[in-house]
Amino acid sequence: MLPYLHHYAETFQSLFLDEEGLLLYHDPLANGDYVGILCIPAHLQAEVVWAAHQLAAHRGVDGTMDKLTLSCHFPSMTKNIRECTSGCLASQQKGDRKRNKRHT
User: Which of 89, 86, 53 is closest to 68 using CA atoms?
Assistant: First the structure.
């Protein structure tokens, strides 16, 4: 079985199609309710991560995770975010500015 299919096999009971035919993950909320989180296909994951990273104002892995976890789901999300954001020059410069401010 392909690695990404293994993930969905484990979460199969939590997957459903909405009225528009989108695959959603049934994510439990703290209050006991459920919300449907969009499952992102493999060929769109890098594009979705990069868009979220830009919307998060280049705040690195944590900022990008905050943007994505409330709205979508896919296997190895954290790993993909690290890979997509590690080469971001704007994030690196932002990190350098923060470090320089702490030491002045």
Answer: 53
What are the angstrom distances between the C-alpha of 3 and each of 16, 52, 63, 84? 20, 24, 26, 19
Please give the Cα distance from 64 to 86 (Å, whole number): 12
Partners of 39 in the β-ladder: 73
pLDDT in tens, 83-100: 888 888 887 777 645 544
Amino acid residing at 17: L
| Half-sphere exposure (Cβ direction) of 103: Cα atoms closer than 13 Å | 6
Per DSSP, what are the bridge partners of residue 15? 25
Is the pTM higher than 0.85? The answer reads no
